[in-house]
Amino acid sequence: MQPAKPWILDHEAYSQVCETRRTLNAHLHDEPDDFLALCMADVIAELDPERDPMLREHARRLHALRGRLGAAWVDRANEHGLDGLLFNLCAGLHRADIGHLALPVLARRIAEISTNPRILALLREYMRAHHERDMVTVIQAAIVARVPGLAAGRIERAFVPETLLANRGVSVQFHRSGHLAAVRIAGDRRSSGSLVLDENPGSGHLAYTARMAGHGYVVDEHYRDAAIHSTYCSPWHDGAETSEPIEWTRWVAEALSSLEALCPAGRGERRQPTPRASP
Asked: Which of 93, 151, 184, 235 could form a disulfide with 194 if both were Cys (CB 3.0 to 4.6 A apart)?
């Protein structure tokens, strides 16, 4: 385990690592056998520029446990949702545009264990955005080995957020091949949406109506030829059209997130999706 050198972390990422390190050390003092916390301590120890001895001791204990568990360690890590936790950290750094050199470390850890097609697909796009070609290759190998359907472009059940699958107000259908056919949210006059994918991966249609800041807007997207062709209507945009190249699985993931945001949350409230762009 080679900790990151101090100068690779920008100030914001450095502060987050230090705060996480303090939280983990305090928690593991009280709960020394917390498996997920030990896993996180191992990851943060690799990023920690100060090589905190307490954190490194927790990492050493995790390595010893991994040795005893053998191949079963991966199953246990996935049962505890380690890939999701690391992905959320990676996504947060990516969205905040900080910790660029920490991202490949997190991506490698995720690619080692994850069987989640949605996480792997989005992680691959993050690494492409940061021009981490070696990590893209590693993630693609993990996809081919663990989720071959995704490698062929199929959007299978595991790719669909549980929020959509479990919601009674959402209809989810699949083609006979297991590829996603449609997701529909009936909603109401102010918010509704649907995603319809063709039987052959690589083309589909997203449409939804929602409100933002008291105003309604309509988004209509067609995906074909590796690009989105969009129409955006709002009080300020009367059918503005745009085209944008984008990877297939990234478009589907973002489309599902937009529909997920339309699902009821809390006490009948709705989280509003954010339009892709204001042309």
From this structure: 184
Closest CA to 124 of 108, 140, 113: 140
Beta strands across the sheet bearing 227-234:
170-174, 180-185, 192-197, 204-212, 215-224, 227-234, 237-245
Give the angle 16-116-59 at the CA atoms, nearest 5°.
40
Structure confidence by residue, pLDDT tens digits, 3-32: 444 446 888 998 999 999 999 999 999 999
Other beta carbons within 10 angstroms of residue 32's beta carbon come to 11
- CA torsion through residues 14, 17, 133, 155, sign: negative
Amino acid identity, position 209:
T
In angstroms, the Cα distances linking 253 to 11, 44, 52, 184, 274 are 31, 28, 38, 15, 14
Smallest Cα–Cα separation from 26: which of 41, 11, 42, 9? 41
DSSP state of 14: H
Rounded distance between C-alpha atoms, residue 82 and residue 44, angstroms: 13
Instruction: Mark 194-206 as b/e (b = at least 16 C-beta within 10 Å).
Output: bbebeeebeebbb
Kindly provide the residue ranges of all beta strands, DSSP E only, lying in the chain, ordered along the sequence. 170-174, 180-185, 192-197, 204-212, 215-224, 227-234, 237-245, 264-265, 269-270
The alpha carbons of the chain give a radius of gyration, in whole angstroms, of 21
Among left, alpha and beta (phi > 0; psi -120 to 50; other), residue 268 is left
Q: H-helix or E-strand containing 123?
A: helix 117-129
pTM over 0.85: no
Note whether 167 and 179 are within 8 A (CB): no
DSSP lists the bridge partners of residue 3 as none
